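This part of the workshop introduces the protein records we will be handling. A record pairs a protein's sequence with a compact description of its fold. Comparing a sequence with its tokens is the quickest way to learn the format. To make this concrete, we reproduce a full record directly below:
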Amino acid sequence: MTNKKVLVTDESTGKNLELPVVTGTEGEPTLDIKSLPSTLGYFTYDPGFAATAACTSKITFIDGDKGILRYRGYPIEQLAERSTFVEVAYLLLNGELPREQELNQFRDELTYHTMVHEQLNTFISGFHYDAHPMAMMAGVVGSLAAFYHEKLDMENPEHRMLSAKRMIAKMPTIAAACYRHHMGWPVVYPRNNLRFCERFLHMMFSVPSEEYEVSEVAARALDLLFILHADHEQNASTSTVRLVGSTGANPYACVAAGISALWGPAHGGANEAVLAMLDQIGDLSRVPEFIERAKDKNDPFRLMGFGHRVYKHYDPRATIIRAACYEVLDELGKDDPMMDLAMELERIALEDEYFIEKKLYPNVDFYSGIIYKALGIPVSMFTVMFAIARTVGWVSQWLEQSETPTKICRPRQVYDGPKERKYRALHRRS
């Protein structure tokens, strides 16, 4: 809070109101409008909450105009180059990078909680064989409160932190089990002698009939993707987690709600949509045709994976993952025609005045799907991969919210339905 204020005048009544200006350590100044309804009788209208700060947070900073993303003050570029996903998880949960002993202890705690209750596997087996993995994830995660309810006192900070660690540790186990149910394969239990991403890949792809050797390239690429997707400020799914959390709901219910929000193709499903688009284009010779279609306002076709709701500049995560994309395909020896299509789309779009003017740069989703595909992860699992990573952000945001007095979230609306009218008996309605 600063001493600066902005004067608002209602010209119809002559009433004035001084709105305090709230400033953080970085970012745009924000007007505190709490007193607006009681003083002037107005609410604010902001569809999609694009111009509304719903909370204060110390976790993630984004500057969309400059293409900046930082976790707890650390640039995403530095974390992607030097850190690991587990270390980033500790940072988001606790506010500081861990010392060696703290990191080892945190890693041990996550490892301890990788197993899930055996009846959860029975629960998963009850889903239809071709159920979408995100549908299973939402249901299974929401049910965790029924299995791990012994330490769910939301007023107890230790219980809250334990729940957060459980969520991070168990999410890969649940995701792998959902995938294997879809494939008709037996569940693989977590091998705790492996690291986080190695363990997940082993649970996903190992089979009883042969020895499975985890690829270091694949594990490193997955770790990078998880870091890039760990948190992204108050997006649709994170806002949903906070909205549900404001009711006092347990963290499993909150994360299940976040998973449901993430499922939408405009959010977590965007990388899945990129692959579908590339499949639709089909051949390099058709790229110019689809570029022109993307420019046509009357054509329903849209280039998926270009532009971002927040970034008006290049998505900083896209820069990192673009380099990783080439590295992964090269090291794995993958000659993927879709990658050629993607690179041609990228080249034309970055040189075309239409896209430059509208600042439609490739975003993180444009490249992440290509990497997942190269790693052998099916398209239906792309959003699940996102959910595994974003769980860290969700529980960090939930913890932060739980530590401060929070009113239940209650947005208002502009009602434009019928005015009051009288009920008419059935026989009198024409």
